[in-house]
């Protein structure tokens, strides 16, 4: 790698968002780009999360790119190893390897107003780029709670996203902290091997059956021979989820029937009424992400598992203490406490036109224009930005919509010509977010009676999209230049001029 490399586009991250952006750039005829990746391989969250039982809760044929169908998925819900292999395959098939720069963690990027470019410092060297596409993803940096006494715990401590494979849990007493999507996969995977498993449950989750099975050889052969059958399967999976959106976004009370199904699912596996009471949520189903598992409840009913209906509050030597005073002696503590979703760590490293970081700009909550751009940060885009998350479908659908927006953004820069940048107008950002937040008011995520990771510190839902994926695709199909200020490269010694300033100067002339 050269000491300093300038490219038209720098993509940050090589998960689904980053690789998807790279493929789209090549399909648009753009080859002057790099993908900056802090690790030594592609995959994003599917590279980092290798805990026992790690798998996706979205059907495989929907959790893959529409432009890269995979007829070889082994199961209807595939595991981590198969998803990562799929992403490696995408990198190979679309010839992305020459663009990948591993070991390049972004330390700081700053907008250069004179050159209309981003200057980027990484752990692997310096770069500059006309446009930055940030695809670090919301599930990239684990969140560890600040627990008094944790530093003095004599045993093993690790987060689910940084699983310590050198530590053998067999025969050990293990504390599992958290009951989210990772925990419900870890618990049944390690329960048969550990001597004791203590689950610290601050809030119970709604759990539905996971309709998972092996995809037969004849099915895979059919998909290989007739590719349209793969598209048909994907379309059916997508359509079913689009029909469900209304209940989440407009009529949460209709979800009561689903709650009854979830309670029946629990009752089949958990016969102890006291344990069922601990595991029954007091909020509307869907307010937190609905979890899928056939093995979680049976594992909790086993004699070597204790469910503590309280969060972990303190560690005293090898004793873990819950907020309700419950104590247990353990050899290891595993945190399934999620990620920094509503305050992405990358935001602290992005310095905009006015010298403020993106984190400072978002100090009162994340705000993005169409989930992609931020005012004061010209030619900077994010994939899976504010209010682009989903509660019931595949994020790949949202990623591909944002890739459409990215492609048209770059086309608009070409049409404008010369050294040019687009900066989202504050009023456009405010108008978009006002509309999103107004729609959010009646959704289950805001009215369901829970506190979830969808909400930021101010109780504002900056994570989820309050509509269908079709609506979002229509909203991001084209860039509206009226929502942007056009910046032109200044003459030597002059400050950057806006389109309005240029027009005024020409009028005076």
Q: Could you explain how this protein is built, in words?
A:
The chain is α/β, with parallel strands linked by helices and 509 residues long. The protein has two domains: 4-141 and 340-505, FAD/NAD(P)-binding domain (3-Layer(bba) Sandwich), CATH 3.50.50; 150-211 and 241-335, FAD/NAD(P)-binding domain (3-Layer(bba) Sandwich), CATH 3.50.50. 31% of the residues lie in helices and 19% in strands. It is built from 15 helices and 21 strands. The protein has helices spanning 16-27, 45-48, 80-93, 183-190, 217-225, 227-249, 256-269, 273-279, 296-300, 358-361, 395-416, 426-440, 444-447, 469-475, 499-508, and strands at residues 4-12, 33-37, 100-102, 106-112, 117-122, 125-134, 156-159, 173-177, 196-200, 207-208, 291-292, 305-308, 312-316, 319-322, 327-329, 332-335, 350-351, 380-382, 420-424, 484-488, 497-498. It is globular and about 75 Å long. Residues 501-509 have low confidence and may be disordered. Pfam families: FMO-like. It comes from Streptomyces colonosanans. InterPro entries: FAD-bind_Monooxygenase_sf, FAD/NAD-bd_sf, Flavin_mOase-like.
What's the short version?
One of its GO terms (molecular function) is NADP binding. By secondary structure, the protein is of the alpha/beta class.
């Amino acid at each position: 790698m050269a000491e300093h490399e300038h490219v038209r586009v720098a993509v940050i991250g090589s998960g689904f968002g980053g690789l998807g952006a790279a493929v789209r750039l090549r399909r648009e005829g753009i080859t002057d780009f790099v993908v900056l990746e802090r690790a030594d391989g592609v995959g994003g969250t599917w590279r980092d999360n290798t805990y026992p039982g790690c798998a996706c809760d979205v059907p495989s044929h929907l959790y893959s790119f529409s432009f890269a169908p995979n007829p070889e998925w082994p199961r209807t819900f595939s595991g981590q190893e198969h998803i990562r292999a799929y992403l490696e395959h995408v990198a190979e098939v679309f010839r992305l390897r020459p663009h990948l720069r591993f070991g390049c963690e972004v330390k700081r990027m700053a907008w250069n107003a004179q050159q209309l470019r981003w200057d980027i410092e990484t752990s692997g060297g310096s770069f500059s780029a006309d446009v930055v596409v940030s695809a670090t993803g919301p599930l990239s940096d684990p969140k560890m709670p600040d627990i008094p006494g944790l530093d003095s715990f004599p045993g093993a401590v690790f987060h689910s996203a940084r699983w310590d494979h050198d530590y053998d849990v067999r025969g050990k007493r293990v504390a599992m902290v958290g009951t989210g999507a990772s925990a419900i996969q870890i618990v049944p995977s390690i329960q048969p091997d550990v001597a004791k498993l203590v689950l610290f449950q601050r809030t119970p989750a709604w759990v539905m059956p996971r309709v998972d099975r092996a995809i037969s050889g004849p099915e895979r052969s059919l998909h290989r021979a007739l590719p349209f059958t793969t598209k048909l399967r994907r379309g059916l999976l997508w359509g079913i989820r689009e029909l469900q959106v209304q209940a989440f976004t407009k009529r949460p009370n209709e979800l009561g029937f689903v709650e009854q199904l979830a309670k029946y699912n629990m009752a089949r596996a958990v016969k102890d009424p006291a344990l069922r009471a601990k595991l029954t949520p007091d909020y509307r189903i869907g307010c937190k992400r609905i979890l899928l598992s056939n093995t979680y409840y049976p594992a909790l009913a086993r004699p070597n598992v204790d469910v503590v209906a309280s969060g972990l509050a303190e560690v005293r030597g090898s004793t873990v203490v819950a907020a309700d005073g419950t104590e247990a002696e353990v050899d290891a503590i595993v945190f399934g406490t999620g990620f920094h979703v509503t305050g992405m760590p990358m935001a602290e490293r992005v310095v905009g036109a006015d010298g403020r970081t993106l984190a400072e700009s978002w100090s009162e909550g994340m705000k993005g224009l169409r989930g992609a751009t931020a005012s004061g940060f010209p030619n900077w885009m994010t994939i899976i930005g504010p209010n682009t998350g989903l509660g019931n479908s595949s994020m790949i659908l949202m990623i591909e919509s944002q890739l459409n927006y990215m492609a048209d953004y770059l086309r608009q820069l070409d049409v404008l010509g010369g050294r040019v940048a687009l900066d989202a107008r504050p009023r456009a950002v405010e108008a978009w977010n006002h509309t999103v937040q107004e729609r959010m008011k009646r959704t289950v995520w805001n009215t369901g009676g829970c506190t979830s990771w969808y909400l930021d510190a101010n109780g504002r839902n900056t994570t989820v999209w309050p509509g269908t994926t079709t609506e979002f695709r229509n909203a991001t199909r084209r860039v509206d230049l009226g929502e942007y200020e056009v910046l032109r490269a200044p003459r030597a010694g002059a400050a950057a001029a806006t389109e309005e300033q240029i027009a005024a100067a020409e009028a005076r002339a």
